[in-house]
Amino acid sequence: MNMANLLLLARFGIAGGSVTLIGYLVFLTSVAMGLHYILASIGAWVASVCIGFFAHRHLTFSGHAIRRSPMLRYLGICLMQLLVGTATLALMIDVFGLVPWIAYPANVLLTATISYVLMRRAMYMAHPAKSL
Question: GtrA/DPMS transmembrane domain location, by residue (predicted)?
Fold first, then answer.
């Protein structure tokens, strides 16, 4: 892996980590207030999508050429992430018996990996945009 890819991955980690922390706080607060974990997860997802698009666009992939319709592509990736994340969260809690506050961050490892790969390939071109 070259230095440019390492820096990109580091920026993804910073932006994604911040967005994930906000989503996790929304999730924990919602569960503590008595909301079912699936609804709490969806609420966390909505908060993360709203913040994440701008965080990744301006921090993670700043300087990269943006493909057309970035918001639609981003929402498509996020919807896929929601479906996979909700299914695996339910599996971790209902089948394997993990408590929600442990299952949620464990689930993030899977969904963050999927998100990074899809965003990198579907939203942003591999090479930074050239300055005019």
Answer: 11-122
CA-CA-CA-CA dihedral for 32, 34, 39, 42, to nearest 10: -20
Residue 125: left (phi > 0), alpha (psi -120 to 50), or beta? beta
The pLDDT profile of the chain, 132 residues, written as one tens digit per residue, is 688 778 877 888 888 888 889 999 999 999 999 999 999 999 999 998 888 888 877 776 666 555 556 777 778 888 988 999 999 999 999 999 999 999 999 998 888 888 878 877 776 555 544 433
Whether 15 contacts 52, CB under 8 Å:
yes
Amino acid identity for residue 38 in this structure: I
Residue 45 CA to residue 35 CA, distance in Å, equals 14
Best CA proximity match to 66, nearest among 15, 14, 129: 129
Q: What is the tally of structural domains in the chain?
A: 1
Q: Is the pTM of this model over 0.70?
A: yes
Rounded to the nearest 10°, the torsion over CA 100, 48, 86, 103 is: -20
